[in-house]
Amino acid sequence: MDKFIYLDNAATTNVAPEVLDKMIPWFVTNYGNPSSIYSVGRTAKKAVENSRRQVAEAINAKTNEIYFTGSGSEADNWAIKGCVQANSEKGKHIITSNIEHHAVLDTCKYLEKHGYEVTYVQVEENGIISSEKVLAEVREDTVLVSVMMANNEIGTIQPIKEIAAGLKEKKIIFHTDAVQAIGAIPVDVNDLGVDLLSLTAHKFHGPKGTGVLYIKRGIKIDNLLHGGGQERTRRASTENTAGIVGLGAAIEKAVNEMPVVTKKISNIRDIAVNRILEEIPHTIYNGDIEKRLPGNSNFAFRFIEGEGLLLMLDMFGIMGSSGSACTSGSLDPSHVLLAIGLPHEIAHGSLRLSFGIDSKLEDIDYIVETINKVVTRLREMSPLYEDYLKNNPTEV
Amino acid sequence: MYSDKVMDHFSNPRNVGEVEGANAVGQVGNAKCGDIMKIFMKIEDDIITEIKFKTFGCGAAIATSSMATELVKGKHIDEALDLTNKAVAEALGGLPAVKMHCSVLAEEAIKEAICNYLREKGVDIKTYHKCDNCCRG
After folding, report:
1. Contact A311/B at CB under 8 A
2. How far apart are CA A295 and CA A320, in angstroms?
3. Which of A309, A377, B71, B78 could form a disulfide with B130 if both were Cys (CB 3.0 to 4.6 A apart)?
């Protein structure tokens, strides 16, 4: 009985069985192109439109403000590139934060090479972006502000409503990447006051490869993909009918079940977090404790490195993620952990455990004990821990 | 992404710890970059009779430390100075390209320990026949 404890729900989730059931006919039986006029095409078109309605209802938008994309990254790219290009007569200044997902950050860096100017607002130490600091950066030539709704690494929830209210007076377009937020916290585009919002199905038990960009009516935006006339001529590509159906079913389920599910998840998360912090010394908890997604937890275990930690946890059937350089594929550890002020050597020892619908209360003992065992083992191997003990001889 | 040998040496690293009464210690890397290797040896009559390591770093860093200590254990220091990072990587069944620097650190840590031993012995490292540019600083 090998353990399989998946604690990386912020990376992706499994497709809910009832969601998969709804998707299958659109691969096999009703496989027609939604743009075709014969019956299997028309049925597919209806299914796509039904899904559009489900998404619109879930985020309190109008159906004609919902555009299906191939991913959350595509939605972010489209929102930013499309918006600044369509509104370039106003100026070429963009404001974002330094803890955004790379889909936003790297898009901004790309635009910097093409004549745009980007201000990266520095996050506070608790992982929350100050709305005042964002609004203070607004200039005459600011075209777009993009701030994520909740951070993917440390789960901190950002003051989107406050930023939107401040920008509204100045008539600046506001995009939020809500990829981590859907199904975790309420997302109501009208209440938030955002103009553009990205989301993706695989974060809430829908399929990978399907996303949405919400575009408020009246917002000027250029196309990212050119070609056919799909998505009311705004996004070329034959519709991924099965994926879109899955996204619709998944978002409806996620939003309906949110109050109950998130309570259960945050309860398990809180117990696990408290025990880890109590039982494993030299552990830092990253990000605000309160303003945080229900499933997210993020630790830094001093004196050890995250990749070794992940590999060893995996041997015991526990799957998490880390912001260490070795797992990011670059020489620097996570930009988010550095942004909240963690020194490099501590950021290397980070572990994100993102709990989900399948997380079980009865697994907490095993999770905490295993992490404790693995951290202890890696510390015993670590020359940094040896140095620490030599300098602090009173500790065991 | 790791070979079975790397996973074996990572999950059951050989020669972890400190050698009591070590007369050759070398440390390379830095915490900021996420890798530190420290090698402890006991060298008698220029033979490495005991060797252990402590490493802060990723899976490959631990595995290369483990393999490097295995490769030079019981060897004459001249032989150990011939150790290359490639030999360490090959003995592990290869390393991903982004992890080759771990094997370089392992080679450097072994050499650093031996060079410190030679320095301690009063050997002029610059003229030591085996030590052509092997000792830094």
Report:
1. yes
2. 12
3. B78
